[in-house]
Amino acid sequence: MNAERTNPEPANLEPLEPERYELSEPRRYVFELERREFMRLFGGGLVVIAAASDLLAQESGRGAGQGGRGQGRGQAAPPEISAWVHIDEKGNVRVATGKVEIGQNIRTSLAQTVADELRVPIATITMVMADTDTTPFDMGTFGSLTTPRMAPQLARAAAAAREMLIDRAADQWKVDRASLSARDGKIVAKDGRTAPYGDLTKGQAIAGTIPANPSLDTPEQWQVRGKPIKKVDGRDFVTGRHEYTPDIKRPGLVYGRVIRPDGFGGTLVSVDDAKAKAMAGVTVVRDGDFLGVVAPTERAAARAASAVQASWNVPAGQPSSETVFDYFKKNPEGARQSAPAVDTIQMPAGVVRTFEASYRIPYIAHTPLEPRTAVAEWSPDGKLTVWTGTQRPFGVRSELAEAFRMPEDRVRVIVPDMGSGYGGKHTGECAIETARLAKAAGTPVKVVWTRAEEFEWAYFRPAGVIDIKSGVDASGRIVAWAFDNWNSGASGLQSPYDIALKPAVFHPTKTPLRQGSYRALAATANHYAREMHMDDMARALGVDPLEFRMTHLESDPRMRAVLTAVAQKIGWPKPSAAGRSLGIACGTEKAGWVATAVEVSPAPRAVEGKQAGGFKVERIVIAFECGAIVNPDGLKNQVEGSIVQGLGGALFEAISFKDGRVLNGSMEQYRVPRFRDVPPIETILLDRKDIPSAGAGESSLIALAPAIGSAVRGLGPVARELPVRLL
Amino acid sequence: MARYVLRVNGKDREIDAEPGDSLLSVLRYDFGLTGSRYGCGEGQCGACTVLLDGAGARSCVTRVGTVGTKAITTIEALATAGSSDAAGPVKLHPVQQAFLDVEAFQCGYCTSGMIMAAVGMLKTNPNPSEQDIARMMDRNVCRCGTNLRIVQAIRLAAERMRTTPTAAGGAR
């Protein structure tokens, strides 16, 4: 067995996501005492507080010496990341990890990993997750890192536990440990004796560490991993029994609402709360620019909130969704700015033709169905416990400790398995608001953000502008490729194609809207622009777009494999019917390789009085490869899901805003994919047992929008923007 | 404030509420029936779907004052007492069982509403095509994108309910 091969951290995996926007913003509320202090220091106006703790700086990629957002690659993960595997005296297994279940199925896939290495039935495993008091520190659940990072750690821990149990049985029975094996929760001897794990652990207190090279199974030996195991707690979801944060009940629980400014950056001028205060049991809390109410019931809190009259001062002249693209180019952020690659690139001799394009990417909203929610409870001795839906329980603990100026060990954050996040729940704003209200109320408080609050006061996937300039030689080969991304992000910035000269620059800029992580980050935007440009060039050169890509992928067999798979499946290059059109695109991100092919048909431009796209997506074929597959059914569910979610950004999602307000902040106005939008999706999973497993919750959506854009070009000219739009 | 008697999951429950208060709020906060989820409060996402006299209804935009004597069924009452299993003495409704068998969910937040909407739909159309399902479920949103599995699960449930009529668990 080759532990070296199955075990190492994948070399091609970035240690951390290159973008952590949401951590670089100042705290939203500066409570009164602190505000006075800052006002003395700064003389009023705008207060900006840098991420204080080293850990946050490390995470944000903005630690000392880092050039700025998106350039902080290469930071090693803190060594504290760890997990516990515990076997009790009855043989029950408890696994503690700070990771969060957000629908990506890690409660099951991590249990599969432990069950496999520990040789126990999966039903004996309890996963204890995302509780800052009872699980080890974890930076957060993002970047598709659970499978490549946490799963191998748990595998090593489980394998070490198994070997210790074998040692113990060998001691008891006075036999050579080589004659013993572990199977189905028992140690079994060649002579037929067996000892359940519980018998071996009874009355013991054994602590061990993981040896440098524990004996691990190879993917070929996997028994539980690699199988389509059902969700371990699936029944709780179909019966409605699962408790998400909005369902948490506490003795004495009351309900809170936050009163929001009239626009982004609004500061509180005056408040008339007489009507609200006259309501039974209502408390109004004002602390700096924070304004909220607490009431005995959820409905009373809503009524009290609407009874409060507040006047806000909202900064004038904020950019709109129309003007923001110019704004980005005129408002760089950070001291060090690079000249655009499209301006500085020197086209090599031999370039016979150049191509230039500029793409616009709008802000889009995560729209998780479970809105931001928290339940906060202060104990009589001043300890704070908060239940909340976040992908970063330990980060939110830090935010709470900082907001209330208390040590982190006096704060506990618990994350019930969550109604999804998609990168949109990294922050603790709702937890802080709720804790502030609970402090005033002197009893536990619950705050559930309304959908309107979620649309306006959460954060967005960054908008951006992407400029490209490329040049081909007389043989039609791309020899130069300059790529600039303003604001939207650095993920997927680098072209995977074999091009001798390919400078790519990410330009951080100021942003009028809160922005942060999103499933696959900027890889979606960067792949859209890159692949649409590839498609443009192929068309202009009269070359088949698939062949054009293959010509520039000599050194990337994994990309060639996924491209070949989708092309065969969709019958490239011939659409299934006259009048229809095919499109294809590919990419790689977070150690996953993906190709997508799409067939579209013409459709009316106007439907039911609304402008419609003039095209319909009829069929999607996706091939995805992320190394050895841990749970094929879970992976297929993730890949299909990412495609459906990706349809939103590709076809209709875009935040419209003006004067500091979101203009389409409701589910009615902001369209997300629905049943009628979902065409047949054919998923091809390439299982590479010879390659360490990478995470799969994100990357599979990156080639969808350009595949659609490319297909729609067969029907007519397409705007250089997202969502895909016929001109 | 007025007093209402609501028929919830086969039992009469009294509640003091404003006529315009949402049924979802009453179910969740007054009756503790948190299986119906709040997703949008606009009747656009379907996470709050319950049955009113057997028909799917969005409880977040259903006003308490308009419910009258209609029988309200929530996800909590869909499974029936019967054979016991590790999770408790319940027999899942065929739609619940099909969702479980197909694993037609990821985060599960939309699942209660999807199942209730599907149960309501199958009462009027016991043999829906994929297009029927897409049309009738269009106001239920799954942000995780498990739509194709949900369609598959509903078709599986429909088939089982047609071939084994008692599978539907009686009157509901």
Question: What spatial form of chain A do the alpha-carbon principal axes imply?
Answer: globular
SSE sequence of chain B, one letter per element: EEHEEEEEHHHH
The protein's oligomeric status is heterodimer
CATH class of the largest domain in chain A: Alpha Beta
Task: From the alpha carbons, calculate the radius of gyration of chain B and give it in angstroms.
Answer: 16 Å
Helix content of chain B: 25-40%
CATH class categorisation of the largest domain in chain B: Mainly Alpha
Number of domains of chain B: 2
| Amino-to-carboxy terminus distance of chain A | 58 Å
**CATH fold-level label of the largest domain in chain B:** DNA polymerase, domain 1
What integer is the average pLDDT of chain B? 92
Structural class assignment of chain A: alpha+beta
CATH architecture of the largest domain in chain A: 2-Layer Sandwich
Q: Biggest interface and which pair forms it?
A: A-B, 58 and 59 residues
Shape of chain B: globular
The residue-averaged pLDDT of chain A reads 87
Architecture overview:
- The complex is a heterodimer of chains A (727) and B (172).
- Chain A contains 19 helices and 29 strands.
- In chain A, the strands form nine sheets. Chain A has a seven-stranded mixed β-sheet with strand order 9-10-7-17-14-15-16, with helices on both faces.
- The radius of gyration of chain A is 27 Å and the shape is globular.
- Chain B is of the alpha+beta class and 172 residues long.
- Chain B has two domains: 2-75, Beta-grasp domain (Ubiquitin-like (UB roll), Roll); 80-168, DNA polymerase, domain 1.
- In chain B, the strands form two sheets. Chain B has a five-stranded mixed β-sheet, with helices on both faces. In chain B, strands 6-7 form a two-stranded antiparallel sheet.
- In chain B, a hairpin with a 2-residue loop joins strand 1 (2-8) and strand 2 (11-17).
- In chain B, helix 2 (94-102) packs across helix 5 (147-163).
